[in-house]
Automatic annotation (TrEMBL), chain A:
<comment type="similarity">
    <text>Belongs to the BlaI transcriptional regulatory family.</text>
</comment>
<keyword id="KW-0805">Transcription regulation</keyword>
<protein>
    <submittedName>
        <fullName>Predicted transcriptional regulator</fullName>
    </submittedName>
</protein>
<dbReference type="GO" id="GO:0003677">
    <property type="term" value="F:DNA binding"/>
</dbReference>
<dbReference type="InterPro" id="IPR036390">
    <property type="entry name" value="WH_DNA-bd_sf"/>
</dbReference>
<dbReference type="GO" id="GO:0045892">
    <property type="term" value="P:negative regulation of DNA-templated transcription"/>
</dbReference>
<dbReference type="Pfam" id="PF03965">
    <property type="entry name" value="Penicillinase_R"/>
</dbReference>
<dbReference type="InterPro" id="IPR036388">
    <property type="entry name" value="WH-like_DNA-bd_sf"/>
</dbReference>
<dbReference type="InterPro" id="IPR005650">
    <property type="entry name" value="BlaI_family"/>
</dbReference>
Automatic annotation (TrEMBL), chain B:
<keyword id="KW-0479">Metal-binding</keyword>
<keyword id="KW-0482">Metalloprotease</keyword>
<dbReference type="GO" id="GO:0006508">
    <property type="term" value="P:proteolysis"/>
</dbReference>
<protein>
    <submittedName>
        <fullName>Zn-dependent protease with chaperone function</fullName>
    </submittedName>
</protein>
<dbReference type="InterPro" id="IPR001915">
    <property type="entry name" value="Peptidase_M48"/>
</dbReference>
<dbReference type="Pfam" id="PF01435">
    <property type="entry name" value="Peptidase_M48"/>
</dbReference>
<comment type="similarity">
    <text>Belongs to the peptidase M48 family.</text>
</comment>
<feature type="transmembrane region" description="Helical">
    <location>
        <begin position="267"/>
        <end position="293"/>
    </location>
</feature>
<keyword id="KW-0812">Transmembrane</keyword>
Length: 117, 302
């Protein structure tokens, strides 16, 4: 089996789920990652880790469990940026230290405008 | 007398000094020493408050000529209040540290999953993550496994030199563990009761930490690319109409001003500010607390 760090694997599996656009079974994910030459159980482990991280939801569909991303890539990205921006001294220690000192409110409004469909 | 003097010192340090110091411009030329001075001011204010709590009951009972039981009760009360103050600070610090750690861990987890950095390996650092999205955004997530995060928008609006300057700036925050400094000021801010609370130290220290990172980045990548990056990152954001005016516009202007001038870190100011910081901690102790302790221990009622 070609060596791949767990983090890279998780990112790769997420990418497959996002690209698929529909819930996938473990077998289907394994199939899509054919060229990576991964063990079936490895794919299963990665999917259960992602489920535990609440970024993937497991659906019980007839015979097999299917997995789907909890949010679209765009939604998750926008949520992450908002989280980075909502760091305030009143609430909590800043999460992140920014390059550029635009007001968080202005940035937040911009993100919301940018992600609105 | 000791209690009154310590009280006056504590109130001066927490109510009078922060405003003018936050507005002063000399710290722009000695940001590291100015951070030290802010830390010393804050610590000295806490010690003054503790000093008041411990010395006031003793002085009042002595002046009133109270008997030993009253003096003993006053002393015990004072120790309890001092304990509560210390406990409140510690609890606040633990809370802020823990909440930030949890939040950053989650943020790091998601950034790692969304990362597109494989397309940008040439940019360098292992801890760099690139997010999709046209909104230009650059920040770092501190911690034991730190990350520098750029949005794709940053790579579109900045050239390579400017991106390097941004990366150098963010890596400095991470290497110098600036989050520890910010967390301690945040914890203090949250522990102080409402009327005595001031955001001035928090905001001033944040700006100074940015300046420290700017100074390292300008040495590594040049002042001009850094200044251009700072200007573009803020300009390129499409401002929504209902967004409030930039409350930190002054901070941003101060950073840009420093970057247009030749390197102006001043040795003299650094030394003066550092001396002031040490003096604030040592002098009140030597002048007020030690003589008082000397007298008070002679009449220890317990």
């Amino acid at each position: 089996m070609a060596y791949m760090a767990l983090g890279d694997l998780e990112r790769e599996v997420m990418r497959q789920l996002w690209d698929a656009g529909e819930p996938l079974t473990v077998r289907q994910v394994h199939e899509r990652l054919r060229e990576r030459d991964l063990a079936y159980t490895t794919v299963m482990t990665v999917l259960s880790r992602l489920t535990k991280k609440r970024v993937v939801v497991q659906q019980n569909d007839d015979r097999a469990y299917k997995y789907a991303p909890a949010q679209s890539r765009e939604e998750m990205t926008a949520g992450l940026m908002l989280d980075a921006l909502t760091a305030s001294g009143d609430q909590d220690a800043a999460l992140a230290y920014f390059m550029g000192q635009l007001s968080p409110d202005a940035l937040k409004a911009a993100i919301e405008a940018a992600t609105k469909k | 007398m000791t209690a009154l003097l310590l009280g006056a010192l504590g109130l001066t340090l927490s109510l009078v000094v922060p405003g003018p110091l936050a507005r002063a411009h000399w710290p722009d030329r000695a940001p590291a020493a100015a951070v030290l001075l802010w830390q010393s001011i804050t610590l000295s204010a806490v010690l003054s408050a503790l000093g008041v709590v411990l010395s006031a009951p003793y002085e009042v009972t002595r002046a009133a000529g109270s008997g030993k039981p009253v003096a003993a009760a006053a002393l015990i009360g004072a120790l309890v209040v001092a304990g509560v103050i210390i406990l409140r600070l510690v609890v606040s610090l633990i809370g802020v540290t823990r909440r930030s750690r949890v939040r950053r861990a989650r943020h790091r987890e998601l950034v790692d999953l969304l990362d597109r950095a494989e397309q940008h390996r040439e940019l360098g650092p292992d801890n760099l993550r690139v997010l999709d999205g046209a909104l230009p955004l650059a920040y770092c997530v501190p911690g034991r496994e730190p990350r520098v995060v750029l949005s794709n928008g940053v790579l579109q609006v900045l050239d390579r030199d400017q991106v390097d300057a941004v990366l150098a700036h963010e890596q400095t925050h991470l290497r110098h563990r600036h989050e520890v400094v910010m967390e301690s000021f945040t914890a203090f801010y949250r522990a102080v009761p409402g009327p005595l609370r001031s955001r001035a130290p928090l905001d001033a220290v944040h700006l100074l930490l940015e300046m420290i990172s700017d100074d390292v980045a300008r040495r590594k990548a040049g002042a001009e690319p850094l200044r251009a990056a700072l200007e573009r990152l803020s300009d390129a954001v499409p401002l929504a109409e209902d967004a409030r005016a930039d409350p930190t516009g002054d901070a941003r202007r101060r950073r840009l001003d420093r970057l247009t001038k030749p390197h102006t870190v001043s040795v003299g100011l650094n030394v003066a500010a550092a001396l002031a910081a040490v003096g604030l901690l040592v002098l009140p102790t030597v002048i007020l607390v030690v003589p008082w302790l000397d007298r008070a221990l002679d009449h220890w009622p317990l």
